[in-house]
């Protein structure tokens, strides 16, 4: 609440933030047209946009509603599978569902519809899971959602469901980010959109989440986070609001899962482990629990460090004739986890604390007031 | 029927005893700090890796076994001092995230040291021998595990009920702040808890990896998670609860792996259904059921939230 | 913290600039192999073959220019979610051709990235048919699973006299699941019965699966799984005193597996690509190289036994060189166009691609472990009519 109270006083910071975001989108679009498509930059941007959406959806639960859920990977899995199942081209099904005679689903839907399906499927499962689980308190809730994610993974791997989920085998051949590029008749790319479109999808979803946080529901969520018993005394229906936050968060996690599927070009239940949830949780913490901007920043930072900037730590490096010691496969992850530990222990508020982008354009004095 | 079920039961009791030794660490730490120590499973794994490297460096077994136990206990102590103590006054979620961070760090450190390759656990003589019991052949360690587990649990219960440090532990887990006011040295009590928990995880790792001889950085994750589930199942904070929970989970898990066979032999299904897929998931289903029906677990004490 | 972080990042960007330039122009060959994870041991051995070949022939003449061949490594971590970033790493370094991978699942998972960048890939030991099917950029120098499954099923049914087979595969591993399916199809065609089971990734307790096989009175236990799991299965089988032989695919062909079976009484039979002794020049050269290079020795599992995958990695490297020569350019699209007509006599046999991009291979080696010495022994060379 404190961070939005000053909105009414001045529209300038909000306007500036909007301009910054718009310029950033423009920069991404222009970069995409002119830099080689194979540059690692675009990998980072695509994966970063995906993780940003998922991290913000987790932040909606953990940071804004105070529900400590560790089921994110499970909902992403549902989203990714739903998307894949409904978009694999019919002529490819025979080869994808090679052990299940082409599978049981014999139609496809357009990509945007499939994305919404992905979200809805995840939200639906979240609703069902929420019924028993949301009554539990903090760590019990965390461990129960973690358990559900593992159960979902096992169900999707079960061979008897093979005609739908392809058993434990990979789903592939569905439209991916590169299919957003506009090609001419001879197959050459005329307009590159493979990075811009994921940015737009993630951007729209995050904007919706921000709107929700600013609405009456959002204020109720924060009241629940700050003091559950007080919130209930104020007449907020706990069960109803928790269920709502859980389902909405899962909806966006599902869309994020679908985006991850597009990024990876293949989907397999095996990879949606609790380690994935932990990774997203760490992103949220590094960015600042309770800051949408922080989650977005740290997603890009996290992905850039792990995929790009710290890669050199995994390879032997020679400076002149001096071989830098310790550098070999895995060193990157050691450094990376040490950085994370430092953030967790000494910079507990993360990059942004609870500040948002518009706050950065406010004068220091105003920050002092809150 | 008995001869069909027995081998699974045997595997289950064995792995259950090993889970129990890990679960005790979870339950004791939770009892005192109200913290799910996600790194505990990784301490268990690191203990296995230490053994591999110590034996490979030529240190004889009768030295390396106690050395591994001491080092494991020390690692537990160190983790608490570095990662949890600075966060004593922080919200519980921060401490839990720190635990996840430690888990991540330990796994990556081991990945780096081993190069991500599976390490073969050294053979400990005698307990690695094969024995045949009621027609089922297994390793000696399978038979020994439940007895050793129960022995250690009795020793632990004695320690908690009859010694001064045990009394301090009980006091701290009852009421953290009051016991601090009463002059109990909270930090040394917490350290002792971590040392005991890690020591038992070290013993558990020896038994576990003697049975399943490969150690890799992720080896601790699943056993750790299952031991935690066992601790919750039995009522977190309760040592006998954790042990009973661990045995139940170990047995159920192996029964599920053999469920196709059991149902098939009993004539209930015509062909195998691949139910073994659910061996891990079932553990979590059990957890959710118990949390919903009886959130305090089988032996847990009822707590009320203060406003 | 932010300052430290930004300082680190700046450092991160600067360090690669220190890379030293060489006199000869460089052509890059990507090595898309697992160096960690369940298949890490196998991936490293396959990479060893390429490294040995690279130090044997470090340059190649393309057109009229002599190029230095640089191997660019990317660890796909044996997992389908790490494979995309490994593939992109190679793509962003603009390799002319990539080699790999050990394991079919990671090959499939990385495939599209190479395709979009017009980079050809030479599959080394990824045996699942789906790797090369319906695409022009993926080639492969080994045999395929339908063939391998047929050979194994025939061997189990005819040579071992098995009538009931128990198949165990890792959930979600395309190699395991594919090979067991082809095995099952052929074995049932011959008149046998097959029971198949799956275990979740990361499982280490196989005792109950072994019990399942015993309970179903299986005559043979077929587990074409990663090295990490097969070593555990072997040791637990030994502890249970199982009576059935254990049958596996090419993944089991490793000295790590042989070591696990040493001193036990388990019978292990596998099919593979190469048998030590088939090409003495390669064998002695490779062993000498291993013995002179401590790091290579460690990566080979601590002794100088030759794994078939190393021989395959060696052949893949030379196939790539041939393709570069034929293309007359380091441009990846040109290499892709040249690859289908490349032929070569490698240490593992003659290599020639068919219209799908698969090498035409008609024989597989059957090997068994001598449990006293811990060595692989040649049993037969199997062909399928």
Please provide a written account of the structure.
The complex is a heterotrimer of chains A (370), B (307) and C (385). Chain A has 370 residues and is mainly α. Chain A has helices spanning 2-5, 12-34, 40-65, 72-87, 90-96, 111-133, 138-157, 162-165, 196-214, 216-226, 228-233, 238-264, 274-287, 292-309, 331-346, 357-360, 364-369; strands at 171-172, 182-183, 189-191, 266-267, 318-319, 322-323. Helix content of chain A is 66%, strand content 4%. The longest helix of chain A is centred in the C-terminal third of the chain and has 27 residues, at 238-264. Chain A is globular and about 65 Å long. Mean pLDDT of chain A is 87; it is low at 1-7 and 365-370. Chain B is mainly alpha-helical. Chain B has a domain at 17-221. Helices cover 71% and strands 4% of the residues of chain B. Chain B is built from 12 helices and 4 strands; from the N terminus they run ααααβββααααβαααα. Chain B has helices spanning 2-33, 40-56, 61-84, 92-114, 140-162, 164-174, 176-181, 186-211, 221-234, 239-257, 259-265, 279-293; strands at 119-120, 130-133, 136-139, 214-215. Chain B has a two-stranded antiparallel ribbon. Chain B has a two-stranded antiparallel ribbon with strand order 2-3. In chain B, strand 2 (130-133) and strand 3 form a beta hairpin. In chain B, helix 2 packs across helix 8 (186-211), helix 3 (61-84) crosses helix 8 (186-211) and helix 9 (221-234) crosses helix 10 (239-257). The longest helix of chain B is centred in the N-terminal third of the chain and has 32 residues, at 2-33. Chain B is globular. Chain B starts with a helix and ends in a 14-residue tail after the last helix. Chain C folds into 2 domains: 23-143 and 280-353, Response regulator (Rossmann fold); 145-272 and 365-383, 3-Layer(aba) Sandwich (Rossmann fold). Chain C is 41% helix and 21% strand. In chain C, the strands form 3 sheets. In chain C, strands 8-7-9-10-11-14-15 form a 7-stranded mixed sheet, with helices on both faces. In chain C, strands 2-3-1-4-5-6 form a 6-stranded mixed sheet. In chain C, strand 9, helix 8 (227-239) and strand 10 (246-248) form a beta-alpha-beta unit. Chain C starts with a helix and ends with a strand. In chain C, 63% of the residues are buried. Chains in contact: A-B, A-C, B-C.
């Amino acid at each position: 609440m404190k961070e939005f109270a000053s909105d009414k006083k001045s529209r300038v910071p909000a306007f500036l933030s909007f301009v910054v975001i718009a310029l950033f989108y423009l920069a991404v679009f222009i970069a995409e047209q002119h830099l080689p498509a194979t540059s690692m930059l675009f990998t980072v941007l695509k994966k970063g946009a995906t993780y940003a959406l998922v991290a913000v959806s987790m932040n909606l639960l953990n940071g804004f509603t105070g529900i400590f859920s560790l089921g994110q990977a499970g909902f992403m899995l549902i989203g990714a599978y739903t998307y894949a199942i409904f978009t694999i081209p019919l002529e490819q099904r025979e080869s994808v569902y090679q052990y299940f005679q082409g599978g049981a689903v014999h139609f496809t839907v357009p990509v945007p519809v499939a994305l919404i399906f992905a979200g809805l499927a995840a939200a639906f499962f979240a609703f069902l899971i929420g019924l028993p689980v949301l009554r539990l308190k903090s760590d019990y809730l965390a461990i129960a959602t973690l358990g559900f994610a593992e159960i979902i993974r096992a169900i999707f791997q079960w061979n008897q469901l093979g005609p739908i989920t392809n058993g434990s085998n990979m789903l592939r051949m569905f439209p991916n980010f590169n299919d957003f590029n506009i090609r001419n008749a001879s197959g050459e790319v005329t307009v590159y959109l493979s990075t811009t479109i994921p940015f737009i999808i993630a951007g729209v979803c995050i904007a919706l989440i921000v709107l929700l946080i600013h609405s009456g529901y959002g204020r109720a969520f924060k009241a629940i986070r700050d003091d559950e018993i007080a919130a209930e005394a104020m007449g907020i229906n706990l069960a109803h609001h928790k269920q709502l936050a859980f389902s909405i968060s899962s909806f966006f996690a599902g869309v994020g899962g679908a985006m991850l599927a597009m990024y990876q070009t293949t989907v397999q239940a095996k990879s949606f482990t609790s380690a994935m949830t932990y990774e997203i949780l760490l992103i949220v913490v590094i960015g600042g629990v309770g800051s949408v901007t922080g989650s977005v920043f740290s997603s890009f930072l996290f992905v850039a460090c792990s995929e790009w900037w710290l890669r050199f730590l995994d390879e032997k490096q020679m400076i002149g004739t001096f071989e830098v010691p310790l550098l070999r496969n895995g060193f990157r992850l050691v450094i990376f986890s040490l950085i994370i530990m430092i953030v967790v222990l000494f910079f507990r508020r993360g990059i942004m604390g609870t500040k948002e982008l518009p706050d950065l354009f406010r004068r220091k004095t105003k920050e002092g007031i809150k | 029927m008995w001869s069909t079920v027995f081998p699974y039961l045997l595997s289950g009791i064995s792995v259950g005893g090993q889970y129990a030794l890990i679960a005790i660490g979870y339950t004791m730490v939770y009892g005192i700090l109200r913290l799910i120590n996600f790194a505990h499973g990784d301490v268990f794994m690191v203990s296995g890796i230490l053994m591999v490297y110590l034996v490979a460096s030529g240190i004889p077994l009768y030295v390396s076994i106690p050395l591994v136990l001491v080092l494991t206990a020390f690692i537990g102590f160190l983790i608490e001092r570095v990662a949890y103590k600075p966060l004593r006054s922080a919200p519980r979620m921060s401490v839990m995230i720190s635990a996840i961070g430690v888990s991540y760090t330990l796994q990556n450190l081991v990945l780096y040291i081993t190069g991500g390759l599976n390490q073969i656990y050294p053979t400990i003589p005698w307990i690695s021998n094969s024995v045949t019991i009621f027609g089922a052949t297994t390793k000696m360690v399978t038979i020994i595990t439940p007895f050793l587990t129960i022995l250690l649990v009795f020793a632990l219960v004695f320690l908690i009920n009859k010694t001064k440090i045990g009394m301090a532990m009980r006091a701290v887990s009852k009421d953290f702040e009051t016991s601090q006011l009463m002059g109990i040295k909270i930090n040394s009590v917490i350290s002792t808890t971590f040392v005991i928990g890690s020591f038992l995880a070290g013993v558990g790792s020896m038994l576990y990896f003697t049975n399943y001889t490969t150690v890799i950085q992720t080896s601790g994750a699943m056993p750790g998670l299952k031991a935690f589930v066992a601790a919750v199942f039995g009522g977190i904070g309760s040592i006998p609860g954790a042990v009973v929970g661990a045995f139940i989970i170990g047995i159920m898990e192996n029964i599920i792996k053999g469920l196709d066979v059991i149902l098939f032999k009993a004539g209930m299904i015509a062909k195998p259904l691949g139910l073994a897929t659910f061996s891990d998931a079932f553990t979590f289903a059990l957890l959710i059921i118990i949390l919903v029906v009886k959130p305090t677990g089988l032996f847990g004490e009822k707590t009320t939230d203060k406003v | 913290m932010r300052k430290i972080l930004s300082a680190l990042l700046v450092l991160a960007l600067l360090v690669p600039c220190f890379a030293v330039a060489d006199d000869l122009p460089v052509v890059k060959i990507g090595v898309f192999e697992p160096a960690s994870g369940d298949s890490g041991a196998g991936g490293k051995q396959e990479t060893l073959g390429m490294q040995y070949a690279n130090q044997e022939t470090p340059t190649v003449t393309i057109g009229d220019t002599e190029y230095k061949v640089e191997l660019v490594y990317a660890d796909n971590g044996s997992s389908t979610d790490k494979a995309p970033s490994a593939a992109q790493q190679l793509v962003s370094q603009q390799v002319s051709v990539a080699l790999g991978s050990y394991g079919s699942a990671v090959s499939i998972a990385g495939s599209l990235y190479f395709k979009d960048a017009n980079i050809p890939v030479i599959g080394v030991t990824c045996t699942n048919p789906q790797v090369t099917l319906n695409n022009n950029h993926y080639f492969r120098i080994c045999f395929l699973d339908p063939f391998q499954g047929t050979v194994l099923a025939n061997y189990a049914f005819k040579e071992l006299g098995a009538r009931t087979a128990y198949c165990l595969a890792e959930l979600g591993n395309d190699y395991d699941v594919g090979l067991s399916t082809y095995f099952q199809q052929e074995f049932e065609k011959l008149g046998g019965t097959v029971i198949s089971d799956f275990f979740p990734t990361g499982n280490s307790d196989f005792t109950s699966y072994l019990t399942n096989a015993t309970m179903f009175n299986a005559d043979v236990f077929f587990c074409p799984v990663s090295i990490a799991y097969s070593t555990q299965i072997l040791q637990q089988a030994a502890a249970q005193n199982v009576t059935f032989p254990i049958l596996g695919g090419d993944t089991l062909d490793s000295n790590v597996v042989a070591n696990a079976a040493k001193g036990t009484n388990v019978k292990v039979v596998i099919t593979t690509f190469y048998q030590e002794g088939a090409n003495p020049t390669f064998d002695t050269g490779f062993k000498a190289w291993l013995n002179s290079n401590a790091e290579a020795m460690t990566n080979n599992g601590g002794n100088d036994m030759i794994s078939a995958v190393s021989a395959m990695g060696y052949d893949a490297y030379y196939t790539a060189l041939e393709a570069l020569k034929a293309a007359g350019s380091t441009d990846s699209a040109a290499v892709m166009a040249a690859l289908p007509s490349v032929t070569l006599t490698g240490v593992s046999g003659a290599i020639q691609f068919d219209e799908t991009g698969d090498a035409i291979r008609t024989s597989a080696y059957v090997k068994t472990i001598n449990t006293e010495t811990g060595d692989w022994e040649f049993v037969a060379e199997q062909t399928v009519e």
